[in-house]
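Appendix C reproduces, verbatim, an entry submitted by the partner laboratory led by Prof. M.T., so that reviewers can inspect both the input and the predicted structure.
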Amino acid sequence: MNNIIPVPQIFSSLQNLTIGGVFYPFQDFGIKLTAILLILLLTSLNISGLKSGAWVSKAILLLVLIGLFLIVFFGLTRNVVKPANFMDVRDLTRGTVTISSFFTSMLAAFWAYQGWVSVGFIGGEVKDATRNIPKGIVIGVFIVIFIYLLVNLTYLSLLSVPQLEQVNASGNKIAAVEAVRSFWGTGGVMFISLLILLTTLGCTNASILTGARPYYAMARDRLFFHGIGKLNRTNVPGNSLLWQGIWASVLVLSGTFDQLTDMIIFAVFIFYGATSLGVFILRRKMPDAYRPYKVWGYPVVPAIFIIFCIYLFFNTIITRPREAVIGMILILSGIPVYLLLQRKYSERNDKGIEKENIYKQEDSGNGSI
């Protein structure tokens, strides 16, 4: 949005104000404030009902697919002189392509695929969930893989690897914008900027819609604050959506978009690895349990995935220490909250049992059964 209509700087005198030398809440504050307003706007839309939020996601998805198709079509069919070193990875600077750099780049690439897990968050609201959730995940992931490879092939056909390196090194350029600029000029830059804006807006709306559901379910299972587990008059978890929107707004002030997405990927892959490890544990401890879903390629596929998660975990600590440390602090902060809630509900249960025993004694004294 800032590329289309420059957002005015706000509190520019506080740009360098820092919290512990780690957080710069007022850096690019105008852009951050715009992001917060959009988050709260989409949150209120989802609080008004599930259908309105889902409708917005579908409309944005359709526009994004049309935009990506146009880029791929014109990018691959236009008579543009291809770079002499088209897709020649040997042109990369010596020593930059390592296993470590490959895993570090995945922190950004995996954000494109992160939506697959969100389907499970709304499992309670999906019709015929046993059939539709696996179907949605499999079809969705393969569609994203296909589009991701096709779009990147288009970029690589328009920009050489050294040019892409320069785009990355500049820090304020986007490969998609530079690729479209090469065959559509200024008008193309406007088009791709609008498309990125729509993509981000759609991703935000989908994340808001699905992300609030686990907090609601946790509260219902007494693993989170009681008030979060309530439905509003439109039959959606309004409190969960509201507090999620407030917390997301706080996170916007904590860092850049890339830092936040890197932190998320680092954090979620800890839990993906733990979940995969749980498959081995449950197969051993509960071999005869009913399993509506079975892991394809067990035990090789989950074992490879666990090793991948472990490597990603340690590699991020080395190459992105800031994101790794903040991510770990946020995760570990859940432990005291969990213990506090367990103690609270345990005391409440004890009081309930004590009260019930008193009633039983009174009933017994009155000759009641």
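The mean pLDDT is 80. Additional entries are available on request from the coordinating office.
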